[in-house]
Each structure stands twice: as C-alpha cells, then as structure tokens.
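About this split. The held-out portion is used to measure sequence recovery: a designer receives only the structure tokens and must propose an amino acid at every position. Recovery is the fraction of positions where the proposal matches the reference. Here is one held-out target exactly as it appears in the evaluation file.
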C-alpha cells in the first residue's frame, strides 16, 4: 500500500467513521492495523506493538490462532448463517452443551445472542418475565455503584449513575436502586459492614426488585476494582432470602481472566442468570450467551406470554458458534490456569511496587488483570501516542492504566508491557 493510499484511507476514517467514545470534531489518534499474530498488532507501516488489552478482554488466545482459523474455514464451507427460529444446527448445540458443562452447576438453559450488552438485556428481560405473573410489582433492579453492563438502554440503566451515561439520558433510562460499591478489597480481611447497604435496601424494597445484577469480583469499565468474594456469597444469600434473582455479568470476567474459569467460582456460588461474551469466541467474532436455571426458564415459559420475548436476527450464528467451540476446546485443553497464575505473579512483582511512585495512588493485580490507579487524569490522546512509540498497545481511561494481555504472552513480552507502564508514569501524558 502506498503512503498516499494510506493517507487517503486514514483521512476518510477521520472524517466519516465514528469510533467508540470518540468525537467526530476532535477525534483521538487512530492507528491502521494491517494484521495481528500472537500478541502483536502489525501496523500498516510495519511497526509491531504488543497488545496489552486483548482487544478489550476478548482475544484470550492471542491472534491468528490456527485452531480457530480452521474452525471458521470449515464452518464457512458449510454455512455461515441460518436463522435460529425453528432451525437448529450442530455448532449451536455443541456450544450450549459446553457452556452448560463448564459454568456453575444449575445453569441449564442457554439463550444465544450477538453481543454482551444484548446478553444483559436478555437477562433483565428474563428477570422481569419471571416475576410478571407471580409478583407484578417486581420491575426494578438493584446494582452496585462503579458497575458497567453495556451501552444499550436497559444495560445503561444499571451502570454507574455518577460516572456512566445517566445524566445524558435522563428521562429515558429506567430508575433503578443503587447501593455502595463493595468496600472490602479482594485480599483484605472481610468486614460484615460491607454488606449492610445491600441488606438494608433489599429489606426495604425487595417487593419492587426483580433482580440484583453485578459484575462478580471485578468491576471492569466502572473502575477496575476487585472486591472480596464474601460480598458475593452474602449477596447470593440475601437474594434468596428476599426472593430476588441474582444476575452475574461475567462478560468481562469469564473464561479464566480472574484466575478462575468464572469469577463466581471465587465465591462458590451459582447465580440465577449468567451473562457471557467477549472471550467466548477468543475474540474472533461477536457472540454472547445468557444462561439460567431450569426453574427460571420454566417459570417464564409457563407464564402468560409462554415465551421469552427476544429473538436477535443473528442468534446462534453458526460461524460464531463454531469458533466459540474451538476457543473453549483450546482453553480447556491448555494450561490456562498456569498461564494466568504466571501472568499474575509477574505483574504483582512488576506493578505493585509502583505504589511508591508520586503519580500512583494504588496498584492491584488479579489473575491476568493488572491495574495502576494514577493521581492525575490521563490524557488519552497523548498517552496513546507515547505507548505506540514505545511498542505497546495500552488504552487507559480516566485515572486508570490497566492491562489484560492474552494468556499466551511470554515473560519477556509481559516485562515490556509492565516496563512501559513504569516508564510512562514520568512522561507527559497528563490532563493539564
């Protein structure tokens, strides 16, 4: 590709293509990726950068994975898509068998959709329909501050009310119940006072609450915070006590990211509904799943509507299901637990000492998630240029520098990522 051709492409991109959370009048820097392999993204000028983000948590095996490539090619030669209404196919059946087999015991019924946000919408619909003819007053949701569940309207209504998008969409988003975020960190001694806000809110409002939705153990885009598993255990107990369903949003945490196959395993609980996405296909295609218990599924199915009121066009897409099957097989036959444990140990050694830096207020690591919380807000445009110049792809936000690399990353590659984080703390990347 000539430089002129590339310049024309990038000019069109800048003027016509709206990227995530980006202004059309003041766009952020954008880099032209030509290919990807292993943990490296190759830019169109030949520059290679180490991906520290796993393409927003999804590419758990890295890029250009032979087993996943083959699965897609084989399936594409048969059929890439067929409607799921009144039709089924082997890739979807196999995928649902796998999901039922590896998720917490009791989750037996699977609804496939095409994105994480939609899986949350489906979960919320399940909860509303579950109570519709049993206790019609149960139409609200309770959730915790600093949470993030997606950008569609139902999902937005249970995202953080202060740092999310509530103000922009006031009057459109359904009002929900919010409680304080868990105050006890993952590795701190448990304090019973941390659950009191949830207990009090449920006691006072349970007759109006259909479900409690939360990200188990790790709050992702809302602050990259890790909380104590006991909070999740007691939340499950309180939900059962007050007849409130528990929805676990494992879109970001599922498939090994926290050191457990699913974050709920840290607390040894089974939610009533679980949302999955991101890593389900190893980052190859968009796909999501919402799993629930047979009791919830049968209650909905025996209700007035007789069906779950949802049906995406690309539900159960065979191509996506085929690559998801290959991704799960690859994960379950790999040494992912040792890989994640190794990543965790190396990041602990490299990142936790950075709390001594003047520009750092906290450093935390869980599984293959490493987080540096900074004292000042990061200028994303400045930071992105510096990171690429230093040979890595890290996309910070607010006061958070974080990485969640593919599980296949080598010690040397991870050392580079961590070293760059340390280096940029002294660079000019801060909001003036």
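Reference sequence for scoring:
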């Amino acid at each position: 590709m000539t430089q002129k051709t590339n310049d024309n492409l990038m000019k069109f991109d800048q003027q016509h293509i709206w990227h995530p959370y980006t202004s059309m009048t003041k766009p952020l820097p954008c880099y032209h990726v030509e290919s990807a392999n292993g943990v490296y993204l190759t830019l169109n000028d030949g520059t290679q950068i180490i991906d520290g983000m796993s393409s927003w948590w999804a590419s758990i095996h890295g890029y250009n994975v032979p087993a996943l490539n083959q699965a897609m090619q084989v399936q594409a030669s048969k059929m890439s898509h067929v409607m799921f209404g009144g039709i089924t196919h082997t890739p979807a059946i196999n995928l649902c068998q796998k999901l039922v087999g590896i998720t917490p015991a009791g989750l037996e019924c699977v609804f496939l959709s095409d994105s994480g946000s939609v899986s949350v919408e489906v979960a919320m619909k399940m909860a509303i329909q579950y109570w519709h003819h049993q206790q019609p007053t149960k139409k609200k949701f309770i959730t915790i501050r600093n949470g993030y569940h997606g950008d569609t309207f139902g999902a937005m209504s249970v995202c953080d009310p202060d740092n999310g998008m509530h103000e922009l969409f006031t009057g459109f988003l359904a009002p929900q119940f919010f409680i304080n975020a868990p105050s006890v960190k993952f590795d701190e001694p448990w304090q019973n006072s941390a659950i009191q806000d949830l207990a009090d809110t449920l006691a006072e409002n349970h007759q109006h609450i259909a479900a409690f939705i939360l990200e188990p153990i790790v709050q992702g885009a809302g602050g990259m915070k890790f909380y104590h598993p006991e909070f999740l255990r007691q939340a499950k107990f309180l939900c059962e006590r007050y007849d409130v369903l528990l929805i676990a949003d494992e879109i970001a945490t599922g498939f090994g990211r926290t050191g457990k196959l699913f974050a709920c395993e840290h607390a040894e609980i089974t939610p009533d509904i679980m949302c999955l996405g991101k890593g389900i296909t190893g980052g190859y295609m968009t796909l999501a799943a919402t799993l629930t218990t047979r009791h919830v599924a049968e209650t909905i199915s025996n209700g007035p509507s007789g069906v779950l009121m949802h049906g995406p066009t690309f539900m159960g897409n065979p191509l996506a299901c085929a690559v998801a099957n290959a991704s799960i097989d690859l994960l379950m036959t790999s040494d992912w637990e040792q890989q994640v444990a190794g990543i965790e140990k190396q990041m602990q050694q490299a990142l936790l000492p950075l709390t001594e830096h003047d520009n750092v207020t906290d450093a935390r690591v869980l599984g293959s998630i490493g987080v540096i919380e900074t004292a000042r807000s990061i200028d994303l445009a400045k930071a992105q240029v510096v990171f690429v110049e230093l040979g890595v792809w890290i996309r910070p936000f607010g006061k958070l520098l974080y990485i969640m690399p593919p599980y296949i990353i080598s010690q040397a590659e991870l050392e580079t990522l961590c070293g760059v984080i340390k280096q940029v703390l002294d660079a000019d990347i801060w909001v003036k």
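Annotator remark: The chain is about 35% helix and 15% strand.
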